[in-house]
Amino acid sequence: MAQVERIAAFCTQCRSRCGCTAVVEDGRLSGIEPLPDHPTGDKLCPKGRAAPELVYHKDRLTTPLRRTNPKGAADPGWQPIDWNTALDEIATRLGTIARTHGPEQVAFSATTPSGSHIQDSIAWIERLVRCYGSPNTIYATEICNWHKDHAARFTYGTDIGTPDFATTDCVLLWGNNPAATWLARATEVQSAVKRGARMIVVDPRPTAFAKRADQWLRVNPGTDQALARGLAHLLIERGAFDRAFVTHWTNGPLLVRDDTGRFLRESDLESGGRTHVCFARETVTGRLLPYDTSRGVWLTGNTDAELRARAEFTTASGTIPCRSAFDLYATAAAEYPPARVQEITGVGEADLANAAEILSTSPTVAYYAWNGVGQSVTATQTDRAISLLYALTGSYGKRGGNVPGAAVNFGDISGQDLLSPEQRAKALGLSERPLGPSVSGWVTARDVYRAVLNGDPYPVRALVSFGTNLLVSQPDLPLATRAFEQLEFHVHADFFVNATARYADIVLPVATSWEREGLRAGFDVTLDGLRRVQLRPPVIAPLAEARSDTDIVLALAKRLGLEQQFFGCDADRGHDALLAPSGLSVARLRAVPEGIEVTTSVSLSAHAQLGADGNPRGFPTPTKRIEIYSERLREHGYPPVPSLAPADMPAPPQAFPLRFSCAKTVAYCHSQHRNIASLRRLAPHPSLEMPPEIAAARNIKQGDWVRISTPSGTAVARAHLVPGIAPGTVFGQHGWWIEGPDGTPYDSSQPLMANINRIMSTAARDPVSGSIPLRSSWCEVERLDGFDAGAGTPRTKEAVPG
Questions:
Q1: Average of pLDDT values for 9-37?
Q2: Are 625 and 296 in contact (CB under 8 A)?
Q3: Which of 329, 476, 535, 659 could bond to 589 as cystine, CB 3.0-4.6 Å?
Q4: Above 50 in pLDDT, residue 800?
Q5: Residues 662/666/672/673 CA torsion (nearest 10 deg)
Q6: Is the distance from CB of 190 to CB of 802 less than 8 angstroms?
Q7: How far apart are CA 219 and CA 198, in angstroms?
Q8: What torsion do the CA atoms of 579, 580, 586, 587 make, to the nearest 10 degrees?
Q9: Beta strands 318-324 and 310-315: pairing type?
């Protein structure tokens, strides 16, 4: 009789990190089940339930491999080698490059911790990169999380926060569809709607949540900033915003000089004046109100500051016209009246007005935005526009709104402090984007390719990859291929030999999360979920010779002489350092595999709490207020309030009249899972969602194979007709690299033809972050004749949890 164990765990197949019970029979993982008492454990998606198929897949890497044939050869000529040989060679090559040329000439890449098993090890990987001395990690953050997590800091000083959907009066989903990407979050949204919360959904597609929304704003891809500013204009014009919050907790009242674009300071008005004292104008008397940005307090104690101020003041250099920051923002918002918003975004005036009414009359609003607005050439300013619109509601930081912070303090073992300023300054792309992801050593793939091929600004000689598939997750396919062929040394650690790994010199087999421990310090689906800390045990032994990313990192660190910086290369010691501020330990968590709930909670309205000096803490921004006007952006040459140039929304190129975007499916996460049989049955082929009228005009029927053409090339997909999509827009799926069955237009004779990133351009980029328009470009679509249209129609149907 089989010996059955049920072990508490959490799934890492996607962003949801669903709590679950792993069912193990005679040492083999046979399935996973929900864990209802867990903050994310109510339900499981198909990806989670397919875990055993992933673990025991016939193509899993089981031993290290070394290339014996030239790069680009049809057969890499993989030769099995032992771990010591592989690790010794990698450490030797990395050490030699660091000593001879400098560690910046080794780039690393890491797949997303938001949607893959690497979340267990990402802090260790980043520590290795920084201890080694490289400022160059391809992280894809500029087309993923950077805007909500980092660009939001230009406004709030913190990230987007955790939306308190559990108690909010209004749910706002902006370019985010949790029904396809985040099951636990979708469950929370559904519960909020059932409880009576109103819902606004901003999305070009008729998603399940869009259909259930009190107001669906069917926006044209790439025009979200215009929509956000149009909504803000209505709220400001009607006086239907939280005036008290904006006056007291934003820098909106502060006066800005017309001539310099800087705040009016005491040092402008008198010799020896303080540079950290700025001014607003009092509403009744018009006198100047001094505000101390270093402490976040009004020096007169009077906060009756005028929001829409315009006045002239005598300074040391003469009379200077000034306007309040809020007046500048309101003027920028007024550039988008309802008629212009409709012309640009496709959102009707009545729908815009109704959304503004819902926002203004809801006591609290909680929102979320992600890739849908983060993959465009205006991503940073669009995030600013949405963040400032949200600030008008007064909900940031309070119950029912978006709450920043954690329930308990944890340490950081990712090594941010271990990379020297000299090495940080060498990050690729930093000189072009001095406020972007390169500040943290997160660089774009195209900048690495340029360095490999052209030595610009210096050569990159080696690439060490953990779990990525750059040929599919990034554009510039020909450039990437040439760069991979030219690298002096290339290492790839993964579950499978994917399209990118085929160019590596050494491939390392990685254990799945079911075969290793994983520490999770908070589950950010809810405020209560932030209190759960869990150390997931390895529910089964590693398959064959597979090792965890953490073990690989520690083995390399030891060989590179970094043992001291890596807690003696002892993972438990490192995790104990991370847990120490919370009072928890690895030993304590290991005894409770389902996790421990800490007694503390995330702080509500933390900005209003008094600090040690007796003053409100405010926000962690230069003015200690939410920054309607960002001097920091202005000082680096960027608009201080959201700005949208005509070039940011170009007309379609000749012969490419359709807006081209992409969307995710519940069956897959990024470029993963398409080799899993049960998931492939749900979505057997790449699909292109099309409005029926667009298809009819091109004689395309449901299930037809089609060619998608852009100025950068062509890709193939299967037509899926969807009524209600934004007019003139089609949606593809990124992440396809597994070859199709023989006879399909993406079979082994036409590899990567289903990869839509092969036809995306990186010529236009967000000037702050380097994001590219993966969700907002132009294309044409035509039917492909000669292929069977009768089989393989997608069967996935997005569903909102009940």
A1: 96
A2: yes
A3: 535
A4: no
A5: -140
A6: yes
A7: 19
A8: -150
A9: antiparallel
Q: What 3-state class would DSSP assign to 314?
A: strand
Q: Which residue has the tokens 């490419």?
A: 656
Count the Cβ atoms, other than its own, within 10 Å of residue 70: 9
In degrees to the nearest 10, what's the CA dihedral of 756, 762, 766, 769? 90
Residue 793: pLDDT band with limits 50, 70, 90: very low
- CA-to-CA dists, residue 482 to 43, 58, 81, 478, angstroms: 44, 30, 27, 6
Name the band, by pLDDT with cuts 50, 70 and 90, for residue 302.
Answer: low
Mean pLDDT of the chain: 95
Locate tokens 């018009």: which residue? 286
Q: Assign 3-class secondary structure to 326-350.
A: HHHHHHHHHCCCHHHHHHHHCCCHH
State residue 314's pLDDT score: 83
Angle of helix 349-361 relative to helix 379-393, nearest 10 degrees, comes to 50
Rounded CA-CA distance 495/510 in Å is: 5
**Among 437, 331, 343, 348, CA closest to 649:** 343
Closest CA relative to residue 226, chosen from 100, 86, 323, 332:
332
pLDDT for 31 = 97
H/E element, 692: helix 692-697
pLDDT, tens digit, for every residue of 446-495?
999 999 999 999 999 999 999 999 999 999 999 999 999 999 999 999 99
- Spatial distance between the Cα atoms of 62 and 509, rounded to a whole number of angstroms: 6
Whole-number Å distance between alpha carbons of 391 and 154: 13
- The tokens for 740 are 């199709």
The pLDDT value recorded for residue 789 is 61
So what's the pLDDT on residue 802? 38
The count of residues in the chain is 802
Q: Is the pLDDT of residue 725 over 90?
A: yes
Contacts of 312 (CB under 8 A, 6+ apart): 319, 320, 321, 322
Q: What are the distances in angstroms from CA 504 to CA 37, 246, 436, 642?
A: 43, 54, 29, 43
* DSSP string computed for 262-304: SB-BHHHHSTT--TTEEEEEBTTT--EEEEETTTTEETTS---
Per-residue model confidence as pLDDT tens digits over 342-358: 999 999 999 999 999 99
Pair of tokens at residue 429: 């792309």
DSSP 317: T
What's the CA gap between 537 and 545, in Å, rounded? 19
Structure tokens at 233: 């204009």
Tokens standing for 82? 């032992």
- Check residue 139 and give left, alpha or beta (phi > 0: left; psi -120 to 50: alpha): alpha
Please work out, in degrees rounded to the nearest 5, the angle formed at the alpha carbon of residue 700 by the alpha carbons of 695 and 704.
125
Q: Does residue 97 surpass a pLDDT of 60?
A: yes
799 pLDDT exceeds 70?
A: no
H or E segment to which residue 230 belongs: helix 224-237
Cis peptide before 204 (omega within 30 of 0): no
Residue 198, strand partner residues: 170
State pTM to two decimals. Answer: 0.96
Rounded Cα distance, 487 and 472, in Å? 19
DSSP codes joined into one string, 132-199:
HT---EE--GGGTTHHHHTGGGGTTSS-S-EE-TTT-SEEEEES--HHHH-HHHHHHHHHHHHHT-EE
| 48 vs 679: CA distance, rounded Å | 10
Instruction: Report yes or no: 636 and 630 within 8 Å, Cβ to Cβ.
Output: no
* Cβ 536 vs Cβ 518: under 8 Å: yes
Secondary structure element (H or E) that encloses residue 131, with its range: helix 122-132
For residue 313, the surrounding DSSP H or E stretch is strand 310-315
